[in-house]
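Repro case for the chain-ordering regression, as requested:
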Amino acid sequence: EIVMTQSPATLSVSPGERATLSCRASQSVSINLAWYQQKPGQAPRLLIYGASTRATGIPARFSGSGSGTEFTLTISTLQSEDFAIYYCQQYNNWPPLTFGGGTKVEIK
Amino acid sequence: QVQLVESGGGVVQPGRSLRLSCAASGFTFRNYDMHWVRQAPGKGLEWVSLIWFDRSRIYYVDSVKGRFTISRDNSKNTLYLQMNNLRVEDTAVYYCARAATTVTEYFDYWGQGTRVTVSS
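-- result from build under test --
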């Protein structure tokens, strides 16, 4: 099973600032990595797939990078609606499909 | 527009059974792999099960093997999860999710979830 580790667990950022979230895989997942955003009481929403491709309707301030075992989600200029929990997920080697533990982006 | 609507959650005692349903609309259901993903209270996301578009392949996370059964009725555009011998640790919100394409198993659409509580 591929273990996905996200860091930090919590990120405190001021609106308008840049946020950088990390996701590490226990073995290579190539670029088969997705990012999701989840707000309280809501279902997750797909942000990024293929490590760097934005899903339909996702603003350009969200960008993904990386390959192999190291991945990054960057939110260039945080808006109020971006404060949420972010999860990475690998789909390279399954079953099982596995998620990271999440990074909570909170208002500083 | 794509819609996934789960139902069937509730409160159940350990060892009992529950059947979840997910009604799909807005897309050609029979062409897509479908998943169940769960989230325990205050915890992260955990993938539970996958059924291929044509039901030819089925997969489970180890913790539910032998207890949960995923199925689908492509004529009714509905996904199911039969959960038997439920345990306290199965308590979670259960989401159905659509895979973007077969084999590239990331989730492009999610339902709103249905809550399952296993408690004596």
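Ordering looks correct now. Chain B touches chain A at residues 35, 44-47, 50, 59-62, 95, 100, 104-113 (CB under 8 Å).
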